[in-house]
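User: Predict the complex.
Assistant: Input components as received:
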Amino acid sequence: MAANPMSQFDVYRIGPEIKVGAFDISFTNASLFMIISTVSILLVFNLGSKRNSVLPNKMQLLAELSYTFVAKMISDTAGSKAKPYFAFIFSLFMFVLFCNMFGMIPYTFTVTSHIIVTFILASFIFIGVTIIGFIKHGFSYLKLFVPSGVPAVLLPLIVVIEIISYLSRPISLSVRLFANMMAGHTMMKVFGGFVISLGLVGGWLPLSFSVALTGLEILVAFLQAYVFAILTCIYLNDALNLHH
Amino acid sequence: MIKKIFFQSIFFSFLFFKEAFAAESGGMPQLNPEFWISQIFWLILTFGTMYVVLSKFILPKISNNLESRKSQILENIEAAEKQREDSEAKLREYDEVLLKSKSEAKTMFNQTRERALKDIMAKKEVLDKQIDDEINKAEKEIEVLRASAPDKINKIAIETSSELLEKLISSGVNRSSISAIVDDLSKRNGDKYYGN
């Protein structure tokens, strides 16, 4: 491992270069960790749903608790209309959570620390939510940008602000996750470097800091997955129940 | 700009790894578009596969499991409720039976007691009558005996005294005068002994 704290985010090819037309879709370490995450998610939830006993075992309990956790989150924020999108939000939450958590293992790669990955997820959510909004409400979905009870003088300004805030949703969503992941991992790497450079004499302070940071980062890994999923639910709520 | 942010973020470590950094270009690998297409492709592939498998196979199963558990628990609760009601009804029935048998036993006991008492009374009456009869008979006998007793005593006394006198005097004795004296004495003493 290189000493550069940013080198942990390097993407490199594993195996041969695969090209489809002009596009390079080679298998990389990012792809590897995406596959590891999805396979472990499928494994965990497959094991958790295999047997249906009244008294659940650990795996079943884990799967069912996650299921009820996400279901409650969706019904709390987006109401019962969001039920058809449960599977998507569940997959999204689990994918982000598992990618974040696998990134916490030393020498691994954090898929969600790459802006392109989070941006693709966020823009998919953004486009999907916008389409759902227009399908459900037609052109009256544009009322989202015109809040009720605003003085007519302020209305042009408010509409512009609302449109900008709406359009910046994919950016804020993707950058929030990406920046949190990158900053946390960089910081841990930096403190790890301090431990080495200060050695046996002074290395203990950054080491203890590193330990504390690891705990914090695990919290952040969960929290960011949760925030990502709950913001998706809120956007979906805007599209399903036009409240403005 | 990005370079600046980067260097600020790693400012401290930069002090210790000057040589190491000198060789590297620095910058965020995230902004290197070399593998963007690859990442997008693999993201869509893996996430899409996961979504399909989860939504088609796994999540319905989990939801089914949860539902079946819920319904099973509800069923069990219902069954338990029913059994409880049944047992309560049985308990009531049992109480009734117990009460009834208790009262029956009471009446039976009372009846037998009365019967036994009656029996005892009847037997007692019969016995009493017998005893009374016996007592009467005995009293009568005593009465007869008592009535005849002074006469016999008088006779014995007369005979004894006349014989005594004959021996003493060695001649005939007027019996009638002796009996008059004995009667007189026995009357006086009989009052003392018999009280009549």
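The radius of gyration of chain A is 21 Å.
Let me know if you want any component modeled separately.
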